[in-house]
Automatic annotation (TrEMBL):
PANTHER family: DEOXYCYTIDYLATE DEAMINASE, DEOXYCYTIDYLATE DEAMINASE-RELATED. Residues 7-154 form the CMP/dCMP-type deaminase domain. The active site is at 91 (proton donor). One of its GO terms (biological process) is pyrimidine nucleotide metabolic process. One of its GO terms (cellular component) is cytoplasm. GO terms for molecular function: dCMP deaminase activity; zinc ion binding. It comes from Cohnella endophytica. Its cofactor is Zn(2+). Keywords: Hydrolase, Metal-binding, Zinc. Gene3D superfamilies: Cytidine Deaminase, domain 2. Zn(2+) binds at residues 89, 115, 118. SUPFAM superfamilies: Cytidine deaminase-like. Pfam families: dCMP_cyt_deam_1. This is CMP deaminase.
């Protein structure tokens, strides 16, 4: 009996999750891969800049910000958000370490839906599609709107289960940091 062959989405998302295991962020491991056709062109994960102590060594650099919310919310329509400013997001690292010519028309597979900042950067990077697994509810609506306006395919992978031992169990749900 032959084993079932994984489809391409599962194959590349599995690789993104394996890449995420390189992250030393105690809050969330994010991995991403750049694919042109069926060829893997680059990988990246979230973490501190090269040569700088990461959060597991020096602690997270948490800042608190207040952000407006939609509708009639308590606290005057503002929500307190904590984020780490030591971490470079996986998508940002991917763009730093790949060439524009390789990104033209490519697909980015990322374990987590890009935040607003990363979505803006990806929208201007030459890629044609973003495939993600975990939703980032805070930014989903505006990111989806940006992708639609830009004409990029933006989709959450369906019926997917990450490889064993690749997801960080962090106590932050929904994620407040990437």
């Amino acid at each position: 009996m032959t084993a079932l062959r994984k489809d391409w989405d599962t194959y590349f998302m599995d690789i993104a999750f394996m890449v995420s295991t390189r992250s030393r962020c105690p809050r969330r491991h994010v991995g991403t891969v750049l694919v042109q056709g069926k060829k893997l062109l680059g990988t990246a994960y979230n973490g501190a800049p090269m040569g700088v102590q990461d959060c597991s060594e020096a602690g997270c650099m948490i800042v608190e910000e207040f952000e407006p919310t939609a509708g009639d919310e308590p606290n005057g329509g503002m929500i307190k958000k904590q984020r780490c400013i030591r971490t470079i997001h996986a998508e940002q690292n991917l763009l730093l370490f790949t060439d524009r010519v390789d990104r033209e028309g490519s697909v980015v597979y990322v374990t987590d839906q890009p935040c607003w900042t990363c979505a803006n950067m990806l929208a201007n990077s030459g890629i044609a599609e973003i495939v993600y697994y975990r939703l980032y509810p805070k930014d989903h609506g505006k990111v989806a709107g940006l992708m639609e306006q830009r004409g990029l395919i933006f989709r959450q992978i369906a019926n997917y289960a990450p490889p064993a031992d690749t997801e960080v169990q962090d106590g932050f749900s929904p994620p407040t940091h990437r």
